[in-house]
């Protein structure tokens, strides 16, 4: 075989580099940014899936809006994509109909525009994907690799489902134990159905707006059935049918997805699963991701940040399912051996996150601060979140730690 001279070798190397560069550019062009996938979204959002659209809020963006999360940066976890709805602009109410059926004495169908004439209600609530924090489990479970940006704090406004039923003179059967919501299948979208317990009716809201603007199409507009205190998957977007039923629905999003193992006939929140193992999900040995668990997040300082000392302000948010109040948040700088109480910005029951802050005296050097929340039911966060490992990585609420430097 003839040997290549130096000039030919260099020429071939140059051609190879050019081809690699061209391939890299082509790959970059094939990977759209968040704003290209969803009109109006911040381009910095992290694309976890292009179809269906899944976007995570970078943590530094999330903490930049500590009161309410704007539509431009709010995460997206869509299980289906409704054609033409990938925009933060509102969707038209015209022609949108919702059927109410099942265990009611008078089934009916209403036009979404009718809701505008009924008394309006408002709720500020944490909207959180049940997979938020999934990458913190070890080994990493299956599913979208969420860090901590699969959540936000938003204000929904609309008509309570109870108010609608009363306006129609509709009564529920005593056998109605679940509310089952069906998403629209416009454009051939796949089926998406979720069931929640009937007690969620107390706060259920047919949302028409978010943060004072028409409900963004990509976030469920024109009408989304919202259950405050419940994980995001239960807040069905583009609701088309509401069914009152005696049992949970049996579609894939209810079984086996969005469930965690439990010991049957106990009140334990989860069954410890051997990390890396598989589980035979059934309606009797698992429970759905319904109510949000107790959690807290550190908004400042950020990981790897350098701050001025010796007095360092640590702040963040805490939340739960809203059934009882968050009563305290504690911070620790010695790995959880001792804890100091933080100051809460608000008291009482709420579906919103509660802001908290603490001032620590810290010497120059490297530090790690941890935070954990407690509520009035005595629920808190485990130091080791991996205790709740499950193969789909749901409901992470381990204590958060942040490493930073004091100048």
From TrEMBL:
Signal peptide annotation: 1-28
Domain Moybdenum cofactor oxidoreductase dimerisation: start-end pairs: 291-395
Keyword check for Oxidoreductase: yes
Gene3D superfamilies (UniProt xref): 2.60.40.650, Oxidoreductase, molybdopterin-binding domain (3.90.420.10)
Cofactor: Mo-molybdopterin
Record domain Oxidoreductase molybdopterin-binding: where: 92-250
Keyword line: Metal-binding, Molybdenum, Oxidoreductase, Signal
PROSITE patterns for this protein: TAT
PANTHER family, per database record: SULFITE OXIDASE, MITOCHONDRIAL, SULFITE REDUCTASE
Protein name (Swiss-Prot/TrEMBL): Sulfite reductase
Organism: Thermus aquaticus (strain ATCC BAA-2747 / Y51MC23)
């Amino acid at each position: 075989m003839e040997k290549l001279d130096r000039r030919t070798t260099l020429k071939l190397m140059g051609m190879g580099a050019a081809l690699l560069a061209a391939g890299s550019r082509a790959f970059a062009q094939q990977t759209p940014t968040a704003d290209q996938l969803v009109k109006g979204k911040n381009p910095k959002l992290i694309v976890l899936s292009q179809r269906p659209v899944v976007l995570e809020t970078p943590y530094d963006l999330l903490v930049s809006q500590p009161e309410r999360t704007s539509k431009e940066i709010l995460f997206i976890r869509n299980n289906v994509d409704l054609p033409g709805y990938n925009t933060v602009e509102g969707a038209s109410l015209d022609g949108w109909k919702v059927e109410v059926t099942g265990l009611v004495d008078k089934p009916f169908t209403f036009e979404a525009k009718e809701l505008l004439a009924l008394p309006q209600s408002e709720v500020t609530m944490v909207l959180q994907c049940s997979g938020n924090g999934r990458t913190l489990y070890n080994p990493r479970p299956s599913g979208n690799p969420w860090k901590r940006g699969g959540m936000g704090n938003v204000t929904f406004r609309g008509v309570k489902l109870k108010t609608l039923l009363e306006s129609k003179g509709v009564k529920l059967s005593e056998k109605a134990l679940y509310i089952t919501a069906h998403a629209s299948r416009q454009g051939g979208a796949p089926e998406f159905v979720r069931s929640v317990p009937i007690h969620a009716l107390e706060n259920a809201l047919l949302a028409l707006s978010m943060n004072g603007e028409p409900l963004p199409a990509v976030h469920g507009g024109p009408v989304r059935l919202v259950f405050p205190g419940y994980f995001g998957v239960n807040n069905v977007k583009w609701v088309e049918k509401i069914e009152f039923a005696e049992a949970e629905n049996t579609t894939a999003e209810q079984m086996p997805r969005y469930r965690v193992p439990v010991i049957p006939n106990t009140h334990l929140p989860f069954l410890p699963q051997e990390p890396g193992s598989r589980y035979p999900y059934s309606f009797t040995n698992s429970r759905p991701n319904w109510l949000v668990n107790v959690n807290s997040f550190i908004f400042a300082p950020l990981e790897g940040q350098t701050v001025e000392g010796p007095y360092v302000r640590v702040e963040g948010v805490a939340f739960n399912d809203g059934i009882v109040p968050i009563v305290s948040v504690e911070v620790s700088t010695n790995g959880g051996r001792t804890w100091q109480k933080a100051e809460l910005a608000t008291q009482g029951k709420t579906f919103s996150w509660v802001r908290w802050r603490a001032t620590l005296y810290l010497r120059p050097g490297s530090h790690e601060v941890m935070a954990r929340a407690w509520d009035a039911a005595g629920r808190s966060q485990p130091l080791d979140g991996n205790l709740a490992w499950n193969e789909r990585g749901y409901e992470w609420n381990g204590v958060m730690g942040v490493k930073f430097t004091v100048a």
